[in-house]
Specification:
heterodimer; A: alpha/beta; Nonspecific Lipid-transfer Protein, Chain A; five-stranded mixed β-sheet; 6 helices; B: alpha/beta; Dehydroquinate synthase-like, alpha domain; 2 domains
Chain lengths: 137, 391
């Protein structure tokens, strides 16, 4: 069990992505890195910045970046939400595209590029569901 | 959290007169040369003149408008500084008007960056009015904007809740000149919007009502409008159906008929309504053949509401699919890809790309039974000869 918001969780997610044949196939042409931002709320007082470098069906790098160093990467995309929203997406209770459209997941970056990679996004969520996750209160 | 966004709708005879009392000083009309030639823009201008509103016409919108056209239109708008942007025409003109407003309000923004995640503060610059001249896209009631990236030969699905028009004006006068084949194509688009909007996983209480009503209106009035274009009542009801269907799928998405139809349209340039309407019954069959009974029950509910059938769910759902095929035939639509005149070898060669495109459409994953590539391939193949989907 990995706690969401820790580097351990990010590493387990990377393992899930890199062992998924379905993601590898769906994202074979994808080139784009992300910040997933866990916005403050509940017990979380400071934002958490996850960095994921997704490249041709694999996750090349993950990092947990302190808020003060968020300039360390300049990712092509930023997705931000509070933990309960991330949880709903991870548990497939909220369609990620619907979450973006309704601004529950705030996306910065080229939306049309994301919309052309729907299958990859779907498989990425499947990878998240494979990580046994504990969520902070 | 879900949203239900709709415009203020002015409808019925003489609805264009609303423009003579609209608040505003300068109107920027986004349209195409054909709409101007048909005299439909004159009808709009006449009302604006009564209100003392200055106007400028941009008539360079092409079918499937490019980002370059939008950039050009927005630049002209910046010179004119309108407080009203008015889209007059079919989906292309209305979509171009929406995108023009965004790029006019945010001059540094590229059209392909219009996203639901951003705030554009559009109303600080102008309000948006859409006046459809076809009864199909429902663009006057949705936030959706479809533009073409000419350089990369791609369609861009864009939009934001801020691009839902403030006002939609549905004056039957504007749609009386549609020829039968356009009436048929666009009418099937309406049916597809409503049927799919009622069956997606995004559907909700607010979208069900308009969806059901739009389906009922299409079954009642599309054939009449196709057979006799001068039948004002049928024209009017189909116009309403298109907008009502827009309020449904604009808030609940479309599904497989659209994702497969879009793929066909992109590769074979089949008109949108004809393409999505063609695949609609095949994808409905695919959904009811799945293990999930939800779609069967939903289609049955629609069939009963439209008085198409009575009895058990499966029987009613199948009757609805039969009714879709019958209506399509009645309004001159192809029932198979072969009927479109596409050569078998050309189509079969394109199937892998059709599948690739459909797999990556949002509308492929808004269903209870999400097809993987092998099932999509079979749907495309079955549709060539008109073979009902049995898997």
């Amino acid at each position: 069990m990995a706690l969401f918001g820790t580097l351990e969780w990010a590493n387990k997610f990377m393992e899930a992505v890199n062992s998924s044949k379905a993601y590898e196939e769906a994202a074979k042409t994808w080139e784009g890195d992300f910040y997933y931002i866990l916005e403050p709320g509940g017990s979380l007082k400071e934002p958490i910045y996850y960095y994921f470098d997704l490249w041709h069906g694999k996750c090349r790098k993950v990092d947990l970046v302190p808020a003060a160093e968020m300039g360390k990467y300049k990712p092509e995309f930023i997705l931000a939400a509070q933990i309960p929203t991330w949880r709903k997406v991870a548990e497939k209770k909220l369609d990620p595209i619907q979450a973006i459209v309704t601004r529950q997941l705030k996306l910065q970056g080229n939306m049309s590029k994301v919309m052309r990679a729907v299958k990859a996004a779907q498989e990425l969520v499947t990878c998240v569901t494979q990580v046994k996750t504990e969520y902070p209160e | 959290m879900q949203y239900f966004a709709v415009p203020f709708v002015v409808f019925g005879d003489d609805s264009l007169q609303y423009l003579s009392s609209v608040m505003g000083k300068r109107a920027y009309i986004v349209t195409d040369k054909n709409i101007v030639k048909l005299g439909l823009v004159d009808l709009v201008v006449e009302e604006l003149k009564k209100a003392g509103i200055a106007y400028k016409i941009f008539d360079e919108v092409e079918p499937e408008p490019s980002t370059q056209t939008v950039t050009k239109s927005a630049k002209i708008a910046q010179g004119f500084q309108p407080d009203l942007v008015i889209g007059v025409g079919g989906g292309s003109c209305m979509d171009a008007a929406k995108a023009t407003l965004v790029c006019y309000a945010q001059p540094d923004l590229a059209p392909d960056a219009i996203s639901p995640s951003s705030f554009f503060n559009l109303r600080s610059k102008a309000r948006l009015i859409c006046i459809p001249t076809t009864s199909g896209t429902g663009s006057e009631a949705t936030f959706a904007i479809v533009l073409t990236d000419v350089e990369n030969k791609r369609k861009l699905s864009l939009g934001s809740y801020e691009t839902v028009p403030d006002v939609a004006i549905l004056d039957p006068l504007m749609v009386m000149s549609m020829p039968p084949h356009i009436t048929g194509d666009t009418g099937m688009d309406v049916l597809c919007h409503a049927l799919e909007g009622c069956t997606t996983t995004w559907r909700n209480r607010f979208t069900d009502g308009p969806g059901f009503m739009a389906i009922k209106l299409v079954f009642e009035f599309l054939k009449k409008a196709y057979d006799n274009g001068k039948d004002v009542e049928s024209r009017k009801e189909m116009m309403y159906a298109a907008t009502i269907a827009g309020t449904c799928f604009g808030n609940s998405m479309a599904c497989l008929g659209h994702s497969t139809g879009h793929a066909l349209g992109a590769l074979f340039h089949t008109p949108h309504g004809r393409a999505v309407g063609l695949y609609l019954p095949y994808t409905m069959e695919y959904l009811i053949n799945g293990s999930d009974e939800m779609d069967v029950a939903r289609y049955a509910e629609i069939a009963r509401f439209c008085k198409i059938a009575e009895g058990n769910d499966k029987k009613c759902a199948k009757a609805l699919i039969d009714a879709v095929r019958k209506l399509a035939k009645d309004v001159g639509q192809p029932l198979s890809v072969k009927d479109l005149g596409i050569k078998r070898e050309d189509y079969m060669k394109a199937v892998p790309e059709l599948v690739e495109r459909a797999v990556n459409e949002v509308m492929t994953i808004t269903v209870n039974r999400i097809p993987e590539a092998p099932d999509l391939e079979k749907i495309f193949v079955y549709a060539y000869d008109g073979k009902p989907v049995d898997f």
